[in-house]
């Protein structure tokens, strides 16, 4: 069973590469951002709540995110493993994920983090805002989101590094270059067949 967390700051390419990496290790890619956007598109109460936080560059409250992840990881397609994109983002969420995995008789296989320099991230996200019309990608919101990532998510790198789970990838460069770097580690993440 392969259970992977894909991390990196906003704009690092998690969403771009999650599907390819998940396909290579034969597990579903589970992205909290996609779950939030689906609720927003459906006009659900959760979607309206999530949109307020996303638009300001803040993280959606843990209790909402944790409940969605708990439900999603219990789905049949995730029983043989998963790749989480966008979760956990805080030490508290990491604790909830640990508890959830223990309750399911599983443990994390690896945490893969994409590193990209700050100005490249800002440029990528501003370009994405133009291409996709995303309200959460204005320059002020982007810079705020990067600060939130530094303050709340970066501490997870030490936690997972201490556990020997961390695989750090240079996320600078074009999509093909980064994808090749990611695919190099899939052999380490995939159990022998």
From TrEMBL:
Cross-referenced HAMAP family: Adenylate_kinase_Adk
Record note on quaternary structure: Monomer.
Its biological purpose: Catalyzes the reversible transfer of the terminal phosphate group between ATP and AMP. Plays an important role in cellular energy homeostasis and in adenine nucleotide metabolism.
Binding positions (AMP): 32, 37, 58-60, 86-89, 93, 134, 145
InterPro entries: Adenylat/UMP-CMP_kin, Adenylat_kinase_CS, P-loop_NTPase
Name of the molecule in the record: Adenylate kinase
Organism: Kribbella sandramycini
Pathway the protein takes part in: Purine metabolism; AMP biosynthesis via salvage pathway; AMP from ADP: step 1/1
Positions with a binding annotation for ATP: 11-16, 128, 173
Matching PANTHER family: NUCLEOTIDE KINASE (PTHR23359)
Cellular compartment(s): Cytoplasm
Keyword Transcription: no
């Amino acid at each position: 069973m392969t259970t992977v967390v894909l991390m990196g700051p906003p704009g690092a390419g998690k969403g771009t590469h999650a599907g390819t990496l998940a396909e290579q290790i034969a597990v579903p890619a589970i992205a909290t951002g996609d779950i939030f956007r689906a609720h927003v598109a459906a006009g659900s109460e959760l979607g309206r709540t999530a949109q307020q936080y996303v638009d300001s560059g803040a993280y959606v409250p843990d209790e909402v995110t944790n409940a969605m992840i708990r439900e999603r990881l219990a789905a049949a397609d995730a029983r043989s493993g998963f790749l989480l994109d966008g979760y956990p983002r805080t030490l508290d969420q990491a604790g909830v994920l640990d508890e959830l995995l223990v309750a399911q008789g599983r443990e994390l296989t690896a945490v893969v983090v994409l590193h990209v320099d700050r100005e490249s991230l800002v440029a990528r996200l501003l370009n994405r805002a133009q291409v996709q019309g995303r309200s959460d990608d204005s320059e002020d919101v982007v810079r705020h989101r990067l600060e939130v990532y530094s303050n709340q998510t970066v501490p997870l790198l030490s936690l997972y590094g201490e556990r020997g789970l961390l695989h750090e990838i240079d996320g600078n460069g074009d999509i093909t270059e980064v994808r090749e770097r990611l695919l190099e580690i899939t052999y380490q993440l995939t159990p022998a067949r």
